[in-house]
User: Fold this.
Amino acid sequence: MLVYTHPDPVAISLGPLHVRWYGLMYLVGFVAAWWLARYRARRPGSTWTPMEVDDLIFYCAVGVILGGRLGWMLFYNTEHIFSEPLSVIRIWEGGMSFHGGLLGVLIALALFARKTGKALVDIVDFTVPLPAIGFGAGRLGNFINGELWGKPTDVPWAVIVDGTPLHPSQLYEATLEGLVLFIIVWWYTSKPRFRCAPTGLFLVCYGVFRFAVEFVRVPDENRGYLLFHWVTMGQILSTPMILIGLGMLAYAYRTRVPTGNLGTAAA
Assistant:
């Protein structure tokens, strides 16, 4: 078993400036998403330009940060909104909600669609293969911060934290929501797919992975189990994702509408 050594959450210190690992993980995610989007925009027949990709990543970054932090405060830490209002901006301390970030990105993409004239569903389909590396990096940041641990366990890969062996649920999520999700969605979108299908697959996969890990992850102390003594907030928020994703996949393969992200000849 690995013994958790409580690593320093600060990666770099330059005088009064402290750069934390958690913040660097977000930078890794945004840079990876930008590079992957630029790579996809160069495919033959792509309807995306490099300038549009740059703007897209900027919109997504704003949506992730604002939506993720506000979502975490609303879903998991409501009390601090009133007792410590400035804690909303302290993202370097951890505390970001995927589901809040998802809503923030959807709003940002709607604004981007209005600006560019592209169909929102095509923008979302183009975007969904991009964030998984960032998800994985963010969960590694959670591990370094020593937060979001799993339940006590005796499995051989447990991490001993202050004398107690625990499920490294952050690493489970880094693997499933990061590496595995990226492989599945990137492979699936490497060929032209019907409109809505990439988004549907992404929602189903992420929702299932998050729902499963919640069984071994300790729920937030101020929330606990919300239903039946085992259902967590993460599972409640992931269930609509799974259902909507399945609906989008069924719709995509029933209507068989070509994607708008490739020209007619390429699609």
The chain has one domain: 2-193.
